[in-house]
Fold these 3 entries.
Entry 1:
Amino acid sequence: MPYLLPHLAGVSVLSVDASGPVVVVRARTRSLAPAPCTGCGTPSGWCHSRYVRRLGDASLGDRAVLIELSVRRLYCENTACEKVTFAEQVPGLTVRYQRRTPLLQQVVEAAGVLLAGRGGARMLRVLNVTLSRCTVLSQLMRMPLPPLVTPRVLGVDDFALYRDTYATLLVDATTRLPLTLWEGRDAEQLSRWLREHPGVEIVCRDGSLTYRQGIAAGAPEAVQVSDRFHLWQGLSRRVQDIAAAHRSCLPAALPPAEEAVPAPAEDATADTPAGHHAKRLFQAVHTLTESGRSYSSVARKLGLDRRTVRKYARARTWQEVVRRPPRKPSTLDPYRDYLQQRWDEGEHNAMILHQELRTKGYLGHYQRVKMAIAPLRRGLPLDQPRERPPSPRETARWITSHPDRRGLHVTHRLHRLLEHCPELKHAHDLVRQFAAMLDNRDATPLPSWLDELSHSGLPPLAGIAKALREDQHAVDQGISTTYNSGVNEGRITDVKLQKRLMAGRAGVPLLRHRVVLIAHLRRRYADRPTTEPR
């Protein structure tokens, strides 16, 4: 048995019963040496009696293991000790008040940390260990948290706990390990934690005024670093507000009118399920409304909403109300004119057309070219995209994207839009100036750039300039230093995953235990060492 159960090497195995569904190992302690008292620690070899302890052990193959261990009960020779007798413990095999071996206890704790209650209980059942979800959670909560070491670089961020309730997560930005979390995101809690754990030199955070005040009150000597991602995200939202304010300029991004193609014929959707549904409702609504019934009466009769009845009643044809899914833009759209030209010249081989498009920069698949020219083989016109003006969000994404990462399609449309709208062009130039500061990690032009924002005549940019000027030192550090809140964001993603695994029913203490312990457990079994964040 020692080669199968090496932790039994310190005891004498008397017999092994493998006839039933559980492997029963009967053993006894063979050492007669004095054992330390569990109360005062005084060694004693004065035997009082023996009794049998039954310990669950890790499964052997596909069968559970039960160890029946005969241990000594000893007298305590220290008269001042409150204990009269005590049970001896076998190192590596028994733990006081525990009916599982340390090996099985590690498996139970790991299952609780990784999978929580129900998931851990199911996993243990696969390993022939039957425990309830409540027992798994109680064993998890009994595990002590690792000793908290005050970090030199601290990451602070918040996340949604449930509904409108938020929580704060603290991360060691050097080791990338979570330190603690608590419910709420007020400045007093953060400042109290910083006063209780002095030694923090750098704090990475977002643009939250609450955290800014808490750090200033709890660790006034610490350098605050505003995260680059949040700075860029805040600027992108202001650009979107500018695009929304100049929505009337957005159609200028479309190609000239002569490039537009008329909409497909009305009967294109006649044989689709949406077309049949629209025709059926259109006929039923008009039949009832022409008989003099009100919209509310027709809605009750057909089981529809009154606004739906009104829409169908006011339509002249069923084609006006048929649902047409919006056509998504394709990477083939800029090359459709070339496909039509080559088809008219007599080239009808999809493989050759695909090879010609690849020489012009097309990176799509051959199958898309084959499907695009399929209408031409049936004598139908080539399906041309129906252009729509870009949305304010899409426009902001065009402006904030790096010029090298914009496609040809986006570049042409953005160029037309910026030529038409000087406000968006000014916003684009300011965005590119800030992007250059981030790329070069040079915050020297920041004061003059903030002045340009304030005098740009664009209220959204003037508003963000005021906010950045109030937090200019942290913004300076965020641009010029290598520290950021990327570690915080990654840990918060993991926190949300653990929270959803527990179906949102776990309290903050259990969530804190799992988040901290699971990170250390992963680090212990990591396949590669963790490097310093860049």
Note: DSSP finds 20 helices and twelve strands in the chain.
Entry 2:
Amino acid sequence: MSVRSPTAPQPQFPSGAAYAEALQHTQLCFRHPELKGARPDLTKLGLPRAISGAFASVFSLTSATSGQRYAVKCFTRYVPDQERRYQAISARLARLDRAELSQPWNLGFEYLPDAISVGQERYPVLKMEWIEAVTLSSWLDDNHADRFAVDRLADRFSALTRDLSQHEIAHGDLQHGNLLVAGDDTLRLVDYDGMYVPDLAGLGGTERGHRNYQSPLRGNDDFGVELDRFSAWVIFMSLKAIATDPTLWNRLHQPSGEFLLLTEEDFSSPGGSTGLQTLLAHPDQVVSGLADRVRSLAFQPLELLPPLSDAIPKQRTAPTVTTTSPGPAAAPAGGAGGLPGWMTGHVPSPARPTSTATVSTSPDGFRGRTALDVATALLWPLLLAMTGVLLMSGLPMPTAVAGAPVAAALLLTAFARSRRVERAQARAALAGLTQQLSRLDEPVKAAEKLRKEKEKFEAAESKRSAAHPKEQDKLTARYHAELKEAEQRKVRKQRDIDKKIGKLAEDLSKALAKALTDKQNAYVRDRLGRRLIADSPPHGIGPTLAARLAAVGIRSAADFTGYRTVQNNSFNSTGAVLVLSNGRLVNVTGIGEAKAIGLDLWRRDVVASAVARQPKALGTAERQQIEQGITRRRAQLTDQRSALEPATEALRVQARKKLEDGRFRLTQEHTLAGREAARQRQEFSQRAVTLKQNRAIHESLSASVEAARMSLRRLAYAHYVRFIYVGR
């Protein structure tokens, strides 16, 4: 394998659109026999349908030779060591024994270098088996109200992460789009671009994963077995929360949102997070506990994050009791010594104690004397006699020496008693029974706990039942408010349109008057422009002055509008300047006040003559054009007014549909909640039965413990001394 220089430019990959264009001719762009001539899924426009991501576009192709459907991943961005990574991932996944996995989550794939031609270049693709499944978020859209299905899926997700952890694999981008739910509600993992396997240890990461599922402390180079831990906690917490309270899906999830319940902002700023605070304040301890765990993990280094298996607390083992009569087969989900409902499936359920228990204890007293017992019985009198002889001999000796035979007799008896198996059996039996009794929940406390849970449940159920008609009333009130608003909007628009229609006659008069004025002004300007000074000069204006006037732009009556007098201080005389049509003042040599007055009078005569001859009315065509414009405006306004009623009716229909949909949703939620309440009440009944059985076992074990203590007392020192002489 060639090694790319660190300074070498990264290769450029085609865009998704370029791949789609090439896939229109799979007979030409592919060499692989399964892909050559394959039929791609098409859009409505007849183009290959692409599912685009940050690094690649995925196309669905059906092989023309085998009919097998494949997902073909075409890369749009460069990934370092891509071929090496996929070879290592493929080899590691191929070694997995599917029989040992919790579910068939891994999909077979094949990395094909130089597989597809785009333009003049060839590029690699990833060929994967196609799976009929939906994304996790789409599945939750349809199934979030089914608490049992969501809880089961949470358990399966936990099992999937356990599979990955046991085989030292990390997916690298666990999120709703890469977790697919198959038809049998088992999970599939897709998108192995960022996957970690042991053979890739030492390489850097290629991505950070979806931002709404990753720890704020994850960097681009993080790459190891711990990559999935934070996202696994986030997804598990979300699923368990929805399973506990399905309303959280609609409260915290946004339609088509790129997250489940929480986003990147919730992890980076938990104090200001509405979603996280909602979960932390949830009355269910499972929801609030998992949310608090996720909050605490958000600011811990990746290498210190615990695996998801730490979410499952250890379960105490229930006492094992030899029974004489079998109890009921079914065990409740909770209760004394039972598992909380959210832990079901994560830890093995303990052996369930039954109603009547008998415990095997040691024999009541000593049975059957041994040689040591007989020897002890024989030595007792001898040692006592020896003590008497020593005391009656009158010899001076210490008291300890005289009492030594008695002490020896006592020690011998204690030793012989300690060798009796009955005593060891009695101690072992008492210890075992005491241990079993300690493992059982105290019946009174367990019953009180159950009573409080039932009271809390019934209070919540009463509140929910009372809220149902209120929610229906809110829907009805909202419906009537929307109808009223639609009607008011229609009336307002009708009033505005009627006002505009009423002004159309006035608008026509104004338009006709303006058109006539514009026509007359144009006629006068034209006549003024035709009267040239050089052709019909005013009195006193000869060719020389006409030429001077033309030089400054005054050739016709249209080129100036009058004159202004000016005072010449040097000669103490009055002069004049002419006013051009653009308002500029010009001084023409030879044009004094008298000649300026003559020019102005000449112009006024021309203007008067033009005004006298100007048109006094619009032509028929001109008038018709204006009237047609007003007619079109009237028709438009009339059409707008006519369209108001259908538009308002559409709003009424929409409001009605919202009302019906809301009522259906409320009814469905109420029905599901009623079923769940019935199930919960049945569970309480089962737990009550179990409590009654456990109480009997507790009483039986307590009696057995007391009997064992009595048996142990019958094996006391004095009882043993009597036994070695009497035999009982």
Note: Residues 1-7, 313-362 have pLDDT under 50 and may be disordered.
Entry 3:
Amino acid sequence: MLGLLLGTAAPASAHAVLRSTDPGDGSVLRTAPRHVTLTFTESVGLLTDSFRIYDPGNRRIRTGSAEHAPGRSDTARVSLPARLAAGTYTVAWRVVSADSHPVSGALTFSVGKRTAAPAAPPTDRAENQATTALHTIARYLAYLSLALLLGTAAFVAYCRPPATAHLRTPVLAAAAALLVSSTALYLLRTPYEEAAAPTAGFSLSALTHTATTRPGRLLLLRLALLLLAAAAVAVLRKRRTRIPPRAGLAAATVLATALSLTWSASDHASAGIQVPAAIVSSTLHLLAMGAWLGGLAALLWTLRRTPEPAGLPASVPARFSRLAFASVTVLVVTGVYQSWRGLGSWQALTDTAYGRTLLAKLAAVTALLLAAACSRTWTARLIRAAAATPARVPEPATGPPLPELPPQPPANPALGLLRRSVLLEATAGLLVLALTTLLTSTVPGRAATESVQAAAAPVPGIPTASVTTIPFDTGAAGGRGSIQITLDPGRVGTNSVQAVIYGPDGGLSAVPELRLTLTLPAQRVGPLDTRVTDRGGYWSAPSFTVPLPGTWTVKATIRVSDLDQVTVSAPVRVTR
């Protein structure tokens, strides 16, 4: 499982999607702009180094501090010097989306004219792989320990296992793991946002900065709740005070709900549409997930720790079967709502990484439900066997001996089968948790769709340019994306050609080879090779002649690796 998480740890997934920029990406301006403004699909947080702007000579220029536009939390802007030299400028940016995940990218704009070799986007903002991997592992362990802690508590409160189960050990282990993983997430918060090394989180400035952010405050609240609960339990044990069952259940419910809120208030539910309803749904989803999957682990522990088959009352798995059924009902209702909210359309289910990850999770949940159905069958047989077993009759003190009862079997076969099915169920639950962690690190389908639509919009600053966006799919892993082709001015005569390639997450993507040709089928002209070259971040041809007006077919051959390439095409209208 750790290998799966490390192998799939990718650069920061963009949850706040860039909707528009001013100046537009690739635009040519007559005069230098006073600001660079980015508009996103949701509110964003700014870092101390959110913008880095480089001049045509690839030298960083001094700018003002990053800020939001007045009354707009979904924008980020930075002021520029009063005078900018002619040429192409590169803007590297990095912000934190409302659901706590950092997002970064780059764009270019030109003042007066494009330079022959625009500056390449700087590489010093690349994700730190160690920080990303540690942050992913800590998040997964936090989910796992929360499920084990909540589920074991619910199992003890409702299913009433025998004292021989010794469930104190998994409860303490889960609480300790949750405390350690939450502390690690707090220490890694600033390095994760700023793409820095893990050791950067130990500085006083990083610790202070994390405490001022919403994710940092929620992590502090989680740590405070855990420490407060531990202190309360220690005091009660020292004084040997017994709490009334109802009061203890109420306190545990409040604690579980508060802990779940520290997740739902900082992830996908905290941004986008219908935020209050989404937070309630996400909290219920987490509670139901913990009751089912954590309860599974507690049931498996109880089954394996019970020395004799007769030592486990049939009422324990029977009660858990009812608890699991109620949890699954809540999971289905809240899961359907969250899937609709995250996807936005049926097409996003197959066309976005979020949708494909959700399909994988649904497959794992289906396997989990099949294992649960088997467990429910063996539980029913166990209950019937317990009801059919005659009671033991004590021997009389005097008088003739009673007739002997038939010997009882040493073990109930249904109990052994129940152990196996619960083990299979718990294994499928681990896979569901891993996919849930990956799902929370993936761009929601609704946001990814908005990104594609924003990419297809006309580029500001080039009102007469012809802009065409073509999706492509090589069939290989990570081989999906789109190419945006700009023909400027889109008229007969000399034009400039630009091509920008976007990856599956909507961010800029570099490919080793690209070929663009234009064909006019009506006049049997072409294919004409545009001879675009890689200019560091985008491909362009500064001078390309289109001889005739009409509807041309632009064909793009994109090679994404040594073995994978694809050819796509679309019509382009050229006027006189």
Note: The first helix runs from residue 2 to 8.
